[in-house]
């Protein structure tokens, strides 16, 4: 045993990291590339090596040799033999099965002929097989490309899809050197690298996958850099109409595209253009509950798209997943701040959109000045004694809600606002009655789901311009809104232990500020309640990204 090393590697594939160790930072720089953070208390963080975490690592070039060497160098003891075996075995499996084109046919091939024979005998691929090659390769139904990848991943064999993509209708897309608004424009080095890794020189090795970058790091620019490489007609899918219009504004500002070539396909407009931007909501709209097909799914086939961009891919609804299974011949680019899905459908993102192609440490981006430095503060708000009995008697889910709507959070919010009189403050909450009451109490405007798009856009514009210093939003503020001057966020309530929501909300304030002013993220949490338990789970993803939460009392906010 060597006490000068920060890791304990255990036989169940969990890894304990001693946070205060001198080499902890060095370990954290590589550990999240192949393991998932599960717990993050003060002294020891718990990571787990999973098949999917290893396959995503393999997709960005991490090898078994690198992982095993890291565990040996950083572990107090030699890693257990079964862990070494699992790392080597799971990483070996990535790419063991390949989808390729032979004479126009879709073929599943492998260097391990016994594996194909076993899969064939087991009937796993029976309904997809249309013939056999002399070397044992299986000719498959072209339309089954997505289903085959899903089925094999469930069996523990991720497929390396090198069957290529349709070029799509050509479109002469070029980025500007000076934006339409008159500012110099250059694609940042990491954005260029992300686009290059996705494009892979135009070969069949690229063309599908996910780019992971924090909010404010310019994922939209990465998509535009990809589009400049491909120069094809493109469909962009995002979360809401405001996001659609932000995408349109960015495209026209930074690319040499005439406005009439960028279409909005939403509830307000139905424009199909060489570059068309729509929402997941419009695509999954039905004329009536339970009706099939979806009203606007024809958008997928409306043009010869050469690229489909899935913004906030971690929010992809199930029907769009199913449609994507049939779109495997189209290039697919997923953009997200976090691959975490609370519904555990990360495997579907991997199979149907593609593996992780690029993921840059948030702290590295912060150190380079591309995103703002952020301070995270969890404010523990005492729960009113007079309501404690009702809280204890309530079911679990109701306990969480009662704790989240703790009326004493208003006093904590007022103290936070008093600390930041000259800042741009975003107040975000889950429960409508709570945020409506808070908005009234502090005299701030409110945006919720039913707020008309035109009103949302006006309020966002006023907030950006500084005419509104404080804006209150419901969970509609979690994603795809561009508020570059927001430098303080106050989370008054959230969705249980959602890690993706925590990351998205911090992301709202990560755009770099003039003068290098740091951003501050407050989370108001009822002390000694279910909400406190959920807060630890929520913070896990950001802890993995190198952020720490300072715990403060309401009294410390003065």
Give the SSE map.
Elements lengths: L6 E3 L4 E5 L5 H7 L5 E4 L4 E5 L2 H9 L4 H11 L6 H13 L3 E6 L2 E6 L2 H10 L6 E4 L5 E3 L4 H10 L4 E3 L27 H11 L8 E5 L6 H12 L3 E5 L2 H14 L7 E4 L9 E5 H4 L23 E4 L7 H8 L5 E6 L9 H8 L2 E4 L2 H6 L6 E8 L6 H6 L2 H9 L4 H11 L5 E4 L3 H11 L3 E2 L5 H13 L4 E4 L14 E4 L7 H9 L11 E8 L3 H9 L1 H5 L4 E5 L5
Parallel strand pairs: 5-9, 10-15, 10-16, 11-13, 11-14, 12-13, 14-15, 17-22, 17-23, 18-20, 18-21, 19-20, 21-22
Antiparallel strand pairs: 1-2, 2-4, 3-4, 5-6, 6-8, 7-8
Summarize the structure in words.
This protein is an alpha/beta fold. Helix content is 35%, strand content 19%. The chain folds into four domains: 7-93, no CATH class; 97-161, no CATH class; 189-360, P-loop containing nucleotide triphosphate hydrolases (Rossmann fold, 3-Layer(aba) Sandwich); 366-557, Rossmann fold, CATH 3.40.50.300. It has 21 helices and 23 strands.
The portion of residues assigned to helices is: 25-40%
Distance between the termini: 47 Å
Please state the CA-atom Rg, rounded to the nearest Å. 24 Å
Strand content: 15-25%
CATH superfamily of the largest domain: P-loop containing nucleotide triphosphate hydrolases
Which CATH architecture of the largest domain would you pick? 3-Layer(aba) Sandwich
| Count of spatially separate domains | 4
Give the gist of this structure.
The chain is of the alpha/beta class and 558 residues long. It is built from 21 helices and 23 strands. Strand 14 (307-310), helix 11 (318-325) and strand 15 form a beta-alpha-beta unit.
